[in-house]
Amino acid sequence: MAKFRLASAHEHERARRAGLGSEQRRAAGVKAAVHFDEYADEDQTYEDAIGDVRSAVDLGLPVKVLDRALLPTFDFWNTAVVVVVGQDGLVANTAKYVGETPIVGVNPDPGRLDGVLLPFRSANVRNAVQRVLEGRHRSATVTMAEARLNDGQRLLAFNDLFIGCRSHASARYTIEVAEGSEAQSSSGVLVATGAGATGWLSSVFNMAAGIARLTGTPAPDVPPLGRADRRLFWVVREPFRSRVSGANLVAGALVREEQLILESLMPKHGVIFSDGMETDFLEFNSGAIATITVAGQMAQLVMPPEGTRSNARRV
Question: Which pTM was predicted?
Fold first, then answer.
């Protein structure tokens, strides 16, 4: 069905463009069809990697294979090591639920995935798991952010937290930090860890840099945060100044016990989600007060032994 749908889409597009003049066809930029074989090859490569990893980690201990959709509901309390086979984002999302259990990131498709958080491949994952079980592994700690609501619910973030409105409507809330407090209306508040500083946060700084160039003013630099840096950087996206909303508290850093406190003024559609996972969220509607801090829990990413070249790319 997928192959038929893809072929039909290209056939209809070719028929549509055939009715255009030559100049119009060139302007439309007709590209070669994407072949279904590419999708099939990508899927097969991933399935082969899963099979190789399952065989490699068969070390006589119970092994549970878990689909990513079940991460929020699975109890990892008695787990010795977690092996993640997927994209970098899966490592980030897994870290929120496994506590400080060591995570071995495996790149299932080095030809397609950068694998910044995936230093291992199926060929060397067995040795990595053995080192963890024997307590001989080397790991890198990663600072995470935490959002805690006044009803006790909490959410961790490996890269970033978003606090705002589910739709494209403005988010309304009060914001409070050590410098003061004010009511705001904006596109939401972004809180980034060191691991996430090169992601969503960098795009905000790219926008600010573009505006700076337009106005001939100095461009701001993305804050230099390492993955283990015990700081968070927060920024208000597109704050709107009006009679009832301010735009004075728009960015800052949180260290250790410092807090960013947000109280929702939205009757509905208010949300808090982390690492781009919009389906796993906390409701942030009127009456909800969120306290954002550096999380006490830190992610533990297993690294190759000293002197061993990692398969992960650096960014």
Answer: 0.81
